[in-house]
Amino acid sequence: MTIFFTKGLLLVFALFLGHTLSGQANFTGNFEPNVAMNYKVATNYKHIFQITQRSTIYDEKLQLRARQLEISHFSELKIAYNQSIALGLLYQFREAFDGAENELRFTQQYDINHKRGSLRFGERLRAEQRIRPSLTTHRFRYRLAMDLPISGEKLDVGEPYFVVSTESLLSVASGKSSQFDQRLTVNIGWLVNHTIKLEVGTQYRIVNYTQSIENALLLLTSLVLSL
């Protein structure tokens, strides 16, 4: 039953993308690999380090042009069996790639998850302060996610799993109109062993949909190490 449910969600996602992207002129494609390392300091406290690079896909030849590089750190504290809070610091390098301003970002996060059988649901709230030389933007994010094992009721080493999420974003800045974004993400992952996970997937973004709407599709890859 789990396999049929997963295939059904993937089919719905594919049909949604095909309908939405057909005829879209204001659209960009991106490739975004990510490496993350989770370091557990105590039973309820861990550090998360990440490096993420994004390249824009140009024309029908699928040429890649580097757009940005991000380095981030999160400190996460578990406050209950299914809840955690975290503080994050991120630096985004843009100027060396496309001439845009670099960005310093502070993040405050609250996360809660629930489990029903083999399904796990997670909700995440984030507040971000995006600081650039010319502008400071405050962004607020809410994400609803679901993951489940593909091969059975429990995820074992060597088995795949499925993750789907939707996220709403609101950005506000002095002298600027509020910006609303929506993101839909689908990933397939593999628990390689007890310390390594691999994920591949796609993310569809609707940017500034109340004004000058833009569309973006990201091809995602991720390597997660847990120490």
TrEMBL record:
InterPro entries: DUF2490
Record keywords, A-Z: Signal
Keyword Signal: yes
Superkingdom assignment: Bacteria
Signal sequence segment: 1-25
Protein name: DUF2490 domain-containing protein
Organism, scientific name: Pricia antarctica
